[in-house]
Design a protein that fits this description.
Layout: E1 9-13, H1 17-29, E2 33-37, H2 40-49, E3 54-58, H3 66-76, E4 81-86, H4 91-99, E5 104-107, H5 112-140, H6 153-165, E6 172-175, H7 182-191, E7 200-204, H8 210-218, E8 219-220, E9 232-233, H9 235-238, E10 243-247, H10 254-266, E11 268-269, E12 278-279, E13 283-288, H11 292-297, H12 303-309, E14 312-315, H13 325-341, E15 347-348, H14 350-358, H15 364-378, E16 383-384, H16 391-401, H17 414-428, H18 433-439, H19 444-454
Parallel strand pairs: 1-2, 1-3, 3-4, 4-5, 6-13, 6-14, 7-10, 10-13, 15-16
Antiparallel strand pairs: 8-9, 11-12
Helix pairs in contact: 13-15, 16-17, 17-18, 18-19
The protein binds adenosine-5'-triphosphate and magnesium ion.
Length: about 475
């Protein structure tokens, strides 16, 4: 089914089935995403599950009142748009409803054109309110990095610092766990600088063997080592006038660290096997998921190089510390993957979102993105439900909440579940095997074996190659 953007979502509340059916047909035809329920209780249940742009409720239902619903709803969200439907001659209660914060009221029997017009007006206002909120956020965020979302104060601080320092030539060290957006920030710094028209070249220090890294960075002359069949320039030369991004700098070996330090200090480089010095004209931005200060104490990282690279430091917080950013990012990725796949998914249910908000995200935003990509493909309806989420999320929540985990009818991927539980336990035990083992009712040896079997490593230590 092609993914047609819906005009907006409406919850219809009316105890008369005939009335609901007519409304649903008309409004669906108009392009709205419509759900209908027979009473206040059912409406509140729906609202626990998901948000609606607009609620269209009958005023007098058998033993409930649309006014009660209005009150409850506005207490939760004063911006919620509610329209009441009143029987002819009960205008007094309609006025009362308007005073209590309803957007408008419609007199029954409903008149089709009037209904459509009133809704169109309501959605115009909903759109304006939303734009206002977006605008306000733009102003507050000073400069937002393209495609980098975040409202958490720590992320706002990141945006502020990036905007402020992009134009300078100082080195920048970006520190953050895997998948927190270090490369996005590095690119944003380049794009915000005078150097933006020149190349941005990235190298992953963890992915290149020690024997090749010098040549990758500085280039080499023909015949300088076996396999050097021709002169080749390195990325410091190739990026001339631009930016070099040294990813996972913490993995660079100590010998190479010394050469890099000299290059920065002398502002020149020499190709491997070369005799001439070539001026160094790049800005260096590096990134690490390690505590470099700790690596210095352990003798794995040169302190003098650290101070050269760490002139400006940007810390990216882990996703689990960013609160409602999970929600914003989830909505962003749902839209992205729904559009990319052509599968119409309009959002995520509240229980599913809650699971995501409570998860610990060892792989941070990258992991969230791939979870949403998969969930969009798995979604059984136009809203992502807990069942559509991968088992590592649901199992982690079962463990955290002590909820007895039920075997779903289609069965489960047991190894995935086990892996998820082990990661969760290790995280809770701060990666001390001896502390995690009792949480899982395992011996130290058994857990150690399983960690190896699944290749589970502490995220900061994981070496990734691209
Ligand atoms: N705040 C954000 N908003 C939107 N997308 C984000 C955000 N942060 C990260 N991403 C996305 O998550 C993925 C990982 O980001 P990135 O490659 O910059 O992380 P990283 O910190 O360099 O990770 P690693 O340490 O594993 O290399 C990318 O696809 C990126 O677009
Ligand atoms: Mg990266």
């Amino acid at each position: 089914m092609p993914n047609q953007a819906k005009k907006g979502s409406i919850l219809i509340v009316d105890d008369e089935k005939g009335q609901r059916d007519i409304l649903r047909v008309i409004l669906t035809k108009q392009g709205y995403d419509v759900v209908d329920v027979p009473g206040v209780r059912e409406a509140l249940k729906q609202l626990e599950r998901r948000e609606f742009d607009l609620i269209l409720t009958d005023l007098k239902m058998q033993d409930e009142s649309g006014l009660d619903l209005l009150k409850r709803v506005l207490a939760d969200d004063p911006q919620q748009c509610v329209i009441l439907m009143t029987a002819h001659g009960t205008v007094d209660s309609a006025v009362e409803a308007m005073k209590k914060g309803a957007f408008d009221y419609l007199e029954k029997p409903l008149e089709r054109d009037n209904l459509i017009l009133t809704l169109a007006r309501a959605f115009e206002r909903i759109g304006l309110l939303r734009e206002n909120r977006v605008l306000q956020k733009r102003v507050e965020a000073i400069q937002t990095i393209p495609n980098m979302l975040g409202e958490h104060p720590k992320m706002r601080e990141v945006f502020r610092v990036v905007a402020k320092i992009a134009a300078s030539t100082s080195t920048v060290l970006i520190v953050g766990e895997s998948g927190t957006g270090k490369e996005l920030v590095a690119r944003a710094i380049h794009d915000g600088s005078q150097r933006r028209a020149r190349p941005f070249l990235a190298i992953n220090c963890a992915a290149i063997p020690d024997t090749l890294i010098e040549s990758e960075l500085f280039g080499h002359e023909k015949g300088s080592f076996t396999g050097a069949n021709a002169r080749e320039i390195g990325i410091f030369e190739a990026a001339g006038g631009g930016t070099v991004f040294l990813d996972e700098i913490g993995e660079m070996n100590v010998a190479m660290q010394a050469k890099l330090l000299r290059a920065i200090q002398e502002k020149e480089i020499r190709r491997v096997g070369g005799k001439v010095n070539i001026p160094l004209d790049v800005r260096i931005v590096s990134a690490t998921n390690k505590e470099l200060e700790q690596e210095i104490r352990r003798g794995n990282f040169r302190e003098d190089l650290f101070y050269r690279l760490n002139v400006i430091r940007i810390n990216l917080p882990p996703l689990r510390e960013r609160g409602s950013d999970v929600k914003i990012l989830t909505e962003f990725f749902v839209k992205k993957y729904s559009q990319a796949s052509g599968i119409a998914v309009d959002g995520i249910s509240r229980p599913a979102l809650k699971l995501l908000m409570n998860y610990i995200w060892p792989g941070n935003v990258r992991q969230l993105e791939s979870v949403i990509e998969r969930s969009v493909l798995m979604a059984e309806s136009n809203y992502i439900e807990p069942e559509d989420l991968p088992v590592e999320i649901t199992a982690a929540s079962a463990l955290a909440g002590g909820i007895p985990f039920e075997l779903p009818p289609e069965g489960i991927a047991f190894e995935e579940l086990e892996k998820g539980l082990i990661i969760k336990a290790m995280e809770r035990a701060e990666w001390v095997i001896g502390k995690a083992a009792p949480l899982l009712g395992m011996s130290y040896k058994t857990l150690q074996y399983r960690l190896e079997k699944f290749g589970i490593e502490r995220p900061e230590r994981r070496n990734k190659s691209y």
